[in-house]
Amino acid sequence: MFGRLRYTLLTIAFLLIGNTATWADKTFVLVIDPGHGGHDAGAVGSFSKEKEINLQVALAFGSLVEQNCPDVKVIYTRKTDIFIPLDTRADIANNAKADLFISVHTNSLPAGRIAYGSETYTLGMARAGANLEVAKRENSVITYEKDYQSRYQGFDPNKAESYVIFEFMQDKFMRQSVDLARCIQKHYVRANRKDKGVHQAGFLVLRKTSMPAVLTELGFISTPEEESFLNSKEGIKTLSTAIYNGFIDYRKQHGYAGKTLPPPIFSNYSATETTPKEDTSVVQVVPVETNNAPIVAPRQKENAETTAISEKENAKAADNTPAKPTNKETVTARKEPTQPKPRKEEKQVTTAKPNPTAKTPTGPSYTIQFAATSTEVSLKDPIFRGMEDLKCTKRGNLYIYTTGHYNSKAEAEKDTKKLPARYKSYLIVKENDLAASAQSATKAEKQPSTKKAEKAEPAKEQNKLTFRVQFATTPTKLSTTDARFKGLPDVRCYHEGKLYKYTSGNYASQAEARSALKELQKKYPDAFIVKFQGNEKK
Prior knowledge:
Layout: H1 2-24, E1 28-34, H2 50-68, E2 72-76, H3 86-95, E3 100-107, E4 118-123, H4 129-139, H5 148-151, H6 171-190, E5 195-201, H7 204-207, E6 213-220, H8 224-231, H9 233-253, E7 288-289, E8 366-373, E9 390-395, E10 398-406, H10 409-415, E11 427-430, H11 431-445, H12 450-455, E12 465-474, E13 491-496, E14 499-507, H13 510-520, E15 528-533, E16 536-537
Parallel strand pairs: 1-2, 1-3, 3-6, 4-5, 7-15
Antiparallel strand pairs: 4-6, 8-10, 8-11, 9-10, 12-14, 12-15, 13-14, 15-16
Protein name: N-acetylmuramoyl-L-alanine amidase
Region (Disordered): 293-367, 437-461
Keywords: Hydrolase
């Protein structure tokens, strides 16, 4: 009897060891997809084509994986300049039973618009107009296919209503896809790339994949400095190493081992990105979106570009519109998905409002305008930590934030280097001009009659300020009890323009809303906070 028992136990142990060995020896399959190819050039720059950049970076990334990850099998959707239909790319990954799918692309903007940096997308409904435009451009490749209308069930890459099919898709792999996207973005930033963030949009190439999948945009071929960088040896090595390290970080998060490589260093290259004369990057000022986004002033040079971006959201966009900066200009900034990290030390500051009776200096004085919002933010808020000599001035419907007092523009320009990294955009303005415009705006605000004010008083509950987390937008209305909203608290829908927007929760404070936002962003990375007064969006 004991002999049989021992035999049975040995057999079970052998089977367990065999299964463990099989699992440990399982090959991890990575599919790398260089976007476009063949007669589909993708975006075209002044001297290069997107399809060439995508292929060079994808092959360099794959080579790093092959050299450093012996347990990973790398499969390319293309290794030469050939055209591959979008659904075929997904089929390659599915047939290979891939564990990950990474599609490599290069961004572009219309002529006259400037932008810098890298961003990464997962599948989902575009929460911002700029995200939708990127998806439209990348999806337009299907028009090169003869039977694309039947092949993609009538999908029209140029019509917004076609993209409603992407709402809440890929739930099974959404969390892992967002994890991968964030890992890649983290290493872009470590390589000194401008962080354009993690977004969701309706990419056909991701739609049919049966594994975690992302599409990463390396940079902007339409920006001369970016195009030069994207085609340089330094650029190719920097970008491929960043994607590789993001891949390794993701693997470590999911129980795999891997060797992280240091960002490449070049003896004749001080940074991985040519420093632009006009930095048009945008940053989040506050997590509350009012009228589509917080507002941030652009950096000013003699012929500075300003950046207009819808939205964190979020409205996040890479669309920068040229214009001559004036003291009246503001720029809508896209909302980032994460909160800025507070610094360890905090210096107390107080809000200084313009004083019409104050004596003006004999000569002009200047200040650095670094942000503007539609709702006032306390200067003691953690987002301003580490900054000194702050001032908030109300101008019309905006609150303008400035720092410092200088006798000359040159002196102010020199001090802009002290601005925290999150405020990469700024304007140098005359303090007198700022105060004057604020006074005129205040007078205009006092024009409405007292009768109108009396009518607005009743119903305190209707005027109560609350905060909700917006997580989705669709061109056609969905029921708030739709099964796809299952598990989300207090789902509501409001109509704005031609879109239906969906929120979760109704919180009395920003702190409560931020807590809910953090949880919701695990599934909807582009979610953001919206302020309401009663049922009206502020």
